[in-house]
Amino acid sequence: MAVFFGSKIICMLKVGITGGIGSGKSFICQILEKMGYSVYYSDLESKIMMDNDEEIRSELITLFGDKVYQGNHLNRAFLAQQIFTSDSNRNKVNNIVHPKVRSYFDEWCKSQNGDILFNEAAILFETDAYKRFDYMILVSAPKELKIHRVIQRDQVSIEEVEQRMSKQWTDEQKSPLSDFIIINDNRPILGQIEAIVEELISIGSTL
């Protein structure tokens, strides 16, 4: 995307960052922020919207009943049970929430001044949303390590983690569609991130 700043045209690259549950993509994004880059956290934004957006709230209640909320907050355990056991329910929720998240991202981009903007989300490939980005970064990690991370983070069973994983594409499915891959298996990752950023800067300077 090109924007005008005075008489100068600045090319703004939109870069998607994705990876399966437990891959550590949020950790990668935090490093990018420390490097001075702006990151839009789609998954976090969707959680905020499901709590606060009245239209989303109304549609989810229509779909699942009043149990989907506990007071002013989404009943995340109840919703997770509905969407991880039903492809139909998961698609319906995605169709309710994701268009608003994407619209908010577009507005967010207009307020940013950086040459490279990053968008973190778990299912960019599964929903075809990756086609909206100039480049895609996949954060990859061994399945066993992902499972261990999620169990430690969410205090859930291995069966629950594997059920969630089964609803996402594998790294092997995502890799051919990715422009860059970060291997996050406890090896040093800063060098990997810096190399990708340098290449993106070089690409942006030629546009």
**Counted beta strands:** 9
Q: Based on helices, strands and strand pairing, what is the structural class?
A: alpha/beta
Tally of individual helices: 9
Radius of gyration, CA atoms, in whole angstroms: 18 Å
CATH architecture classification of the largest domain: 3-Layer(aba) Sandwich
C-alpha termini separation: 10 Å
Strand order of the largest sheet: 4-7-3-8-9
Helix percentage:
40-55%
Summarize the structure.
By secondary structure, the chain is of the alpha/beta class.
Outline the structure in words.
With 207 residues, the chain is of the alpha/beta class. The chain has two domains: 1-37 and 115-207, P-loop containing nucleotide triphosphate hydrolases (Rossmann fold), CATH 3.40.50; 44-113, Rossmann fold. Helices cover 51% and strands 18% of the residues. It has nine helices and nine strands. It has helices spanning 25-34, 42-52, 54-64, 76-84, 87-110, 143-154, 158-165, 171-174, 190-206, and strands at 2-5, 8-11, 13-18, 38-41, 69-70, 73-74, 116-120, 135-140, 180-183. A five-stranded parallel sheet has the order 4-7-3-8-9, with helices on both faces. The protein has a two-stranded antiparallel sheet with strand order 1-2. Strand 1 and strand 2 form a beta hairpin. Helix 2 (42-52) packs across helix 5. The longest helix is centred in the middle third of the chain and has 24 residues, at 87-110. The radius of gyration is 18 Å and the shape is globular. The N and C termini lie close together (10 Å).
